[in-house]
C-alpha cells in the first residue's frame, strides 16, 4: 500500500471522557435511601466488633498490663476465669542479668554453685530457670542440668524492678564426671 493512499480517520461522534472510579463521589449514607434501622444495626455491629477487638488485645497483653499497672491484676484475673487463662509475672529474659556466679569445689565430688541475678527492667519479672553446663579442659560439655527457681531455693515467683537475688546450692556429681570438671557456663532462660 502506498503511503499517499492512506485515508484519514474520521470520527462521527465525539468521544466522552471516562471518569476513573476512584474519582467518583458517592452520596452520603443518609441520601442513599438507607433504612435507618439497618444503619443503626451496622453502627452497633461496628462498635461491638471494636469492643471485641479491644478485649482481645487486653487478654493477649494481660501479663504486661498487670506488671505495668498492678491495680489491674484483680480485674484481669476475673476476666480470665471464664476464658480459661491466667495472669502471670511478665517474662523478659533480656532484662535479667547474671551479675556474678561461681562454681567451686568443696570436696572430691561436691561443688558449690553461687549465682546472683538482677532485674534491670522497670517492671516486675518472673524468676527464670538457669541452665548449668559443666565442661572439661577442652570446653566439651560433660553435664547439662536445668535448675528451676525452686531448685535454686527461690522463695518467690517474681523479681521486683531493680531487685537483686542470689543463691548458693551444693551440687553433687558422680566421681568420673567430678574429676573431669574444669569449667562451667550459666544461661538464664524461661522454659
Outline of the structure:
The chain has 191 residues and is of the alpha+beta class. The protein is 26% helix and 28% strand. It folds into two domains: 33-83, no CATH class; 94-189, Immunoglobulins (Immunoglobulin-like, Sandwich), CATH 2.60.40.10.
Which features would summarize this protein structure in a list?
three-stranded antiparallel sheet, 191 residues, 2 domains, elongated, alpha+beta, single chain, Immunoglobulin-like
What name is given to the CATH topology of the largest domain? Immunoglobulin-like
Distance between the termini: 84 Å
Summed up, the domain count is: 2
User: How much is the radius of gyration in Å?
Assistant: 34 Å
Overall mean confidence score, pLDDT: 85
User: Helix-strand pattern, N to C?
Assistant: HHHEEEEEEEHE
Q: Explain this structure to me?
A:
- With 191 residues, this protein is an alpha+beta fold.
- The chain contains four helices and eight strands.
- A hairpin with a 4-residue loop joins strand 1 and strand 2.
- The longest helix is centred in the N-terminal third of the chain and has 25 residues.
- The chain is elongated and about 105 Å long.
- The termini are far apart.
- The model has no long low-confidence stretch (mean pLDDT 85).
Amino acid at each position: 500500500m502506498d503511503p499517499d493512499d492512506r485515508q484519514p480517520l474520521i470520527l462521527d461522534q465525539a468521544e466522552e471522557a471516562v471518569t476513573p472510579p476512584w474519582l467518583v463521589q458517592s452520596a452520603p449514607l443518609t441520601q442513599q435511601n438507607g433504612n435507618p434501622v439497618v444503619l443503626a444495626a451496622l453502627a452497633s455491629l461496628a462498635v461491638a466488633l471494636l469492643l471485641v477487638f479491644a478485649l482481645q488485645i487486653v487478654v493477649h497483653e494481660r501479663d504486661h498490663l498487670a506488671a505495668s499497672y498492678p491495680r489491674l491484676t484483680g480485674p484481669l484475673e476475673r476476666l480470665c476465669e471464664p476464658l480459661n487463662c491466667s495472669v502471670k509475672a511478665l517474662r523478659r529474659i533480656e532484662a535479667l542479668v547474671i551479675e556474678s556466679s561461681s562454681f567451686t569445689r568443696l570436696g572430691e565430688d561436691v561443688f558449690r554453685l553461687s549465682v546472683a541475678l538482677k532485674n534491670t527492667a522497670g517492671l516486675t519479672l518472673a524468676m527464670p530457670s538457669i541452665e548449668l553446663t559443666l565442661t572439661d579442659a577442652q570446653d566439651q560439655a560433660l553435664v547439662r542440668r536445668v535448675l528451676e527457681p525452686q531448685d535454686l531455693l527461690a522463695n518467690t515467683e517474681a523479681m521486683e524492678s531493680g531487685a537483686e537475688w542470689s543463691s548458693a546450692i551444693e551440687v553433687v556429681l558422680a566421681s568420673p564426671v567430678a574429676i573431669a570438671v574444669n569449667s562451667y557456663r550459666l544461661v538464664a532462660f524461661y522454659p
